[in-house]
Amino acid sequence: MAEGETEKEYATRKAIERLRERFQELTTTLKESPESPSDASLRFCQEFCQILVEHAGRWKAEEEPLPLLEVYTVAILSYAKAITCLSSECENVPLVLENLGLSCVELLLSLPESVPGALWEEFQSCVKSAHSLLQKHGNTQLHMLSAMAQEPGVWTNTTLSSILSNEMPEIDRVHEFLQIEGPTLLSMRIKHLIKQNRAEKAAVLAKMCSEYPEYEGKGNFKQTYLVCLCMTKTQEQLMQEIMQVDCKDGLEMICNLESDGDEKGALCLCSAFLERQLLQGDVYCAWELTLFWSKLLMRSESSADAFLGQCRKLVLLSRSVCHILFLIKVIQSEVGEVGLPVCIEMCIQALQMASSDNTDSRTTICKTISCLLPTDFEVKRACQLTEFLFQPTVDSYYAVEALYNEPDEKLEDENLPVPNSLRCELLLALKTQWPFDPEFWDWRTLKRNCLALMGEEGSIVSSIDTLNDADEGLEDDAAEKGPEFKDLEDFILNTTNELNEIADEKEKNREAKKLREKGFVSARFRNWRAYMQYCVLCDKEFLGHRIVRHAQKHFKDGVYTCPICADSFDTKEILEPHVASHVKQSCKERLAAMKATRKLPKPTQSTSSHCNNFKDGAVVKLEAETIVSPNDAHSLDGNCNSAETVKVSPPKPVQTKGCFVFKPSAKKRRKTPTVEDYFTHGCEDTENSKLRFRNCQTLWEKMKADTELLQDELNRKILDSLLAFIRKSVSTFQRGTDDWASGMRAHEIPTAALVLGVNVPDHDMTFQCLSDQLQQSVTPFVVSVQATECTALNHMLQRVLERLMGTSVSVDNEEEPEQCSTNVNQKRVHCSLITLCNWYKTVTKKAASGTASKKRTSVGKDMQQHPPIVVIFKDLEAFTPKVLQDFILICSRYVEQLPLMFVFGIATSPSTIQHMLPHSVSSLLGIELFQSLSCTQHLASVIDKVILTSQFPFKPNGKVLQVLVSIFLYHDFSVRNFIKGLQLALLEHFHSQPLSVLCCKKEAALVHATELSHRDVERLQQLPSFMRYVEEQGPQEQVELLTSDDHVKEVCQKLLKDLCKYHKNYYTTLRCLHILTASLPKYPLGKQIRELHISCLEKNVWENDEYVCAMQLLRMMAKDELTSALQKCAEILKSGKTKKMRAALLQLDNLLSKFDQPGDLVENAAGEDLTSPGKGLQKKTDLFQLQKTLLEMKKSRRTKEMSQFEIFRDQALEFIDSLVRSHLAPPESQPLYEVCYYSSSAVLRRHLNATPRTSIQTALSNPYHYLKNEDLRAEDGTVSNAAPDICIVYKLHLECGRLINLYDWLEAYATVVSAAEGKDPDSVDFGKVDELKHARFIQAVSELEFLGFIKSTKQKTDHVSRLTWGGC
Q: C2H2-type domain location, by residue (predicted)?
């Protein structure tokens, strides 16, 4: 022990010396190790870490940090000295060095400000030496320590001290300091300041870092700065700082803080953003902020009272009703019934806040109150009345009537859901919205005031209610007891008066009936007929909205049935608006029909022979869309024999229509299943099947919208060219030109040859889009024809004229006499182009003079005086050449009268026109060629938009995508069918996978993960990917993952976030790899990106031979090509939204900057020898000398040093390779990938790629497979004797050779059939062939011949030849 040295200091010095010796021994062992460099390096790293942990564990950082600093100093220097013996292929070498540096930095930051000078000088020298040693081998992990060692202390830097003391130095000094420190060290400094409760200084430093341009996108300095402000600044200063931050960026910051475990900071930041939105009255991202705020607050606040208190504070800040509704939603979700009084208080404040102009918000508040207090009858009445007064409609009126006609319910004080004082305050707030106070009114008084507010609809409702009340009054009078009379005279007088009244009433009814027969209908009867509704379930009629109340009677097994359309509903709340919409729609249609009837002119005479009782002016018309009840038909029957309706106009004969009423039979009524019913039927988990259906539907609608938008963009170029060609051709029809060229073109029919490719199913969409654009911008006269409807010339002319003129066209020698007699009153025109010319002149004159119809006038505003007539031939190859030639010849004769234009849809080649049309016909056409985008390019765009994106969570796996692409390439080339196949895969995934409820957007998936049931958690634990994840965890974590549902839900949220990040990194890296390899010779990884994507989905792409070949080809790439490809990769990485992609972009930019450096590192003296390899062979030598010279030349070639470009190229490719290995792992390596990936390729192939031959053989060999009849079940290889005849004959023929004897075949068949009939095998008739069996056998054999299994042969008369082999 030295003088003045304490025992403790002596022990510390001895421990440090022992540590240095052990490190030296470990380094010596590494140098002398017989193992491979990689294994020896791995062993060294493990033992090094064990020694360091063993010695560092003797001291605690809080109590004795200085000995620990000595330990780290010795460890860093020892590791740097051993770096020359460590292999660069070992992944642990840089990892240990990086962790060692970070641990040392954390220790230094926690040290006191004054460190002993000797110790600090020793630390500085050791770090400097270690950093220089490591830099020689390309390691920069000690950059932070080196930056700190340049200063006399950890916190003594003058610029840093000035920043922390709020004395801002020069901006250049600040930037220089920030550049030297680096983002990682600065982040650690800020976290240490926050940990030491020095948030103000941390805020100043974080602000400086966030404003430094070089650190944009590096580190979370902005969110750290805002969190520090939440802890230190006042409300006004905080609002001023976050005013410029977008809410979506704020949400991302909150999510980052929550994922890092800083829930307190996330809550502070979320509260600040939410308060800003509340004060501004802005609903942008308000719901997301409210939801996050409630979840974070519930984690920090254990009691519901504290949560409700915070909600009350936010309500006082809110300026919008939407914010209050959001808070009510989260209160109900988090605390349930406990927060009901607070929700009512918020509703009262919302009622006072809502303006009189915003009716929808006030109506929403009333509905919210009704949902919050469903058992308080008085409050429900007040809310419904308030809703009616805001929007006085028929639906709301009948809802008020239904509530006021129900008996009053008195609630006991102890059963009130909210305090009575709060309830009275709520009722008072509702009554302040009323124009009157109906507290002491009965229903009749209230009804009168309500009807006065409804206007015209109120009078109709009043008349209907009067009819209903009259009917009920008659029933009540019949039930009452008769009056008592004083004497016989009084009885006789009253009886006589009653008889007279009855007689008068009958006379009045007879007169009314005569008037109805003559066509006079009262207003009361019209209203009754307009509002009459018919129940198809119980065969009854109801007036007005009373059928809504009647619909509640059809409740069975928990299902409500609509009495009008027979659809099923789960709740009454959904049923009532549905039935009310039926009533409202039908009433509108009928009232409109009756208004149209009243406007008809009076007839001058009756022309119906069998309806001669109608007088002048009596008209009754029932529109086609009006639903007529049986009573209506009976009342309108009159003296007409068939309940005919008459429409009379003065100049034309009357047309009669029969009106028949058919009531649906109760036996034939069936419940019509909806799409949701088909989806939920057969689902494994019916609990969340409806949610999965909604997710599936929402996702598909978004995918469909994007694909349709993409297809419109792809077709836009060719459609614009077509439109320009047609507009240009219009000028050739101008008359009076003297130009010879224009005259020649005027005799030609402008024709656009549109080559669309062989993907025929996609053509309809293109032609429909072309037709719509032509009608909108060029001409209203567009007609499309197909070959199937134009088999003859007259048929083609007929289709063209009918679709242009909108009337029936007669063809010569086609009509039968009976057809002519039935259509005698229907206008028909002759089928010829002369008729079309006359019609065209008439229409264009009307359009020019402004007397045409509204549609023609609107179109004619922007078109020429003579708009062209465009005829589109959709499938030119399928037309009969003769028909097409004759049609063109006829049209060419009228080219001066009709501005005709043709569009030919060609699927194969433009030469089709030359093959179908001779020169004499094609010379009449002015043809211009238009080529559409190829279907393969179209498919690549669709895959890039829908599949190779992280926007949509649903993904097909490699086999499924291969099936879809194979069907496209080898069957139809139809992009439309590819999209339908993708839709089928999406539907199958959501139907068959119960956990697909998590296959949605990230925010919704995280919410659904918290709502998983116990059964769903069990399914989650049974997923293979999740089981692999559990196996990788520690023992304690495994127990939690297998026993705790809440812990599984938390882990599930984390894994879903990781899966989203995986997808973002995957697709960015995939595009970079495709950019590099798409131009290589022979395309080792595929020419299309979908081929590379499928390879990456199947297994690790870097293990393929093709990948190795591609990397070898890249190492031979020239500088210009490589830099160009890397620049494209940089552009792709810029779109990456993750931290890893931003870090990769920075690294790639550094590599690209190196390529721009001039010069060469190496001047190889041996290069001269390599340039002239024959210099050493000039002399005449023997064979041994020649061999020696060649070996020396080969050795010199190997030892040639690499150029600067080759070094940089290898670095770039190593960077790309590391990027591929990090982010292009197959999805099977990710936990919970089953949630998003659909893998049942066999199911998809069975649905999309039918195999009829296999299906037929399966049906014949095993009929039970399709018929599901238990009598047909048999063992493999056998046939049931109860099977159909063709199945028996088929199975018997499989046992024969190439030729089959018909008689032997018949006998075998008869034996099997006799066994099926139950005959005794020992009887004489068993197996005997009778006429019936013979006929059945001949029929079965004929069917087999028709199916192609056998055929007759000339080799033997009584034999047939077998055609198929290897049947199933």
A: 560-587
Give residue-wise pLDDT tens across range 1264-1310: 888 888 878 877 656 677 789 999 999 888 888 889 999 889 988 88
Query: How many beta carbons lie within 10 A of that of residue 688, not counting itself?
Result: 20
In three-state form (DSSP H/G/I as H, E/B as E, the rest C), the secondary structure along 383-437 is HHHHHHHHCCCHHHHHHHHHHHHCCCCCCCHHHCCCCHHHHHHHHHHHHCCCCCC
The residue type at 556:
K
Please give the Cα distance from 734 to 652 (Å, whole number).
41
Per-residue model confidence (pLDDT) at position 648? 33
Rounded to 5 degrees, what are φ and ψ at 931? -110, 125
Backbone angles phi, psi at 191, to 5 degrees: -65, -35
pLDDT tens, residue by residue, 579-611: 878 877 776 666 565 544 444 343 333 333 333
**What span, in angstroms and rounded, lies between the C-alpha atoms of 12 and 5?**
11
- pTM of the prediction? 0.50
Asked if residue 837 lies in contact with residue 897, where contact means CB atoms within 8 angstroms, the answer is yes
Mean of the pLDDT values across residues 87-95? 79
Residues 799-826 as b/e (b if ≥16 CB within 10 A, e otherwise) read: bbbeebbeeebeeeeeeeeeeeeeeeee
What is residue 854's predicted lDDT score, i.e. its pLDDT?
43
Give ∠ CA 1124-1130-1133 in degrees, rounded to 5. Answer: 150
Distance CA 398, CA 544 (A): 9
Tokens of 1341: 């054999």
Alpha-carbon gap, residue 236 to 234, rounded angstroms: 6
Check residue 1277 and give left, alpha or beta (phi > 0: left; psi -120 to 50: alpha).
left
Contacts of 518 (CB under 8 A, 6+ apart): 613, 614, 615, 618
- In sequence order, what are the beta bridge partners of 977? none
CB-based contact 611:640 (threshold 8 Å): yes
Model pLDDT for residues 1186-1245, shown as the tens digit of each residue: 667 777 766 665 555 677 888 888 889 999 999 999 999 999 999 999 999 999 888 888
Q: Residues 532, 634: contact at Cβ < 8 Å?
A: no
Q: Name the CA dihedral angle for 212, 213, 217, 223, rounded to a multiple of 10 degrees.
A: 30
Q: 675 with 664: CB under 8 angstroms?
A: no
Q: From CA 411, how far away is CA 543, in angstroms rounded? A: 34
- Please, which residues have CB within 8 angstroms of residue 1086's CB and are 6 or more apart in sequence? 1077, 1092, 1095
Report the alpha-carbon distance of residue 1229 to residue 1028 in Å, rounded: 9
Report phi then psi at 761, rounded to 5.
-60, -20
Query: Rounded to 5 degrees, what are φ and ψ at 568?
Result: -105, 145
Taken in order 70, 76, 78, 81, the sign of the CA dihedral is: negative
Beta bridge partner(s), residue 784 = 872
Q: How far is CA 738 from each of CA 735, 744, 819, rounded to the nearest angstrom?
A: 9, 11, 51
Q: Mean of the pLDDT values across residues 709-729?
A: 85
Reduced to 3 states (helix: H, G, I; strand: E, B; else coil), residue 701 is helix
Average per-residue pLDDT for the chain: 76
Contact, 1025 vs 981, CB < 8 A?
no
- Burial label for 318, CB within 10 Å (0-12, 13-18, 19+), is buried
Q: What pLDDT, on a 0 to 100 scale, did the predictor assign at position 361?
A: 79
β-pairing verdict for 900-906 and 540-543: unpaired
**Is the Cβ–Cβ distance between 938 and 977 less than 8 Å?**
no
Six-digit token pair at 1263? 């009929």
**Structural contact between residues 330 and 340, judged by C-beta atoms closer than 8 angstroms:** no
- Find the helix or strand (DSSP H, E) in which 906 lies: strand 900-906
Which of 1296, 1264, 1298, 1258 has the alpha carbon at shortest distance from 1283? 1264
Angle at 491 between CA 489 and CA 493, to 5 degrees: 70
What is the radius of gyration, based on Cα positions, of the chain? 45
Q: In what helix (H) or strand (E) does residue 815 lie, and over which residues does it extend?
A: none
Hey, which residues does 949 pair with through a beta bridge?
none
| Polymer length of the chain | 1368
With contact defined as beta carbons under 8 Å apart, do 976 and 762 qualify? yes
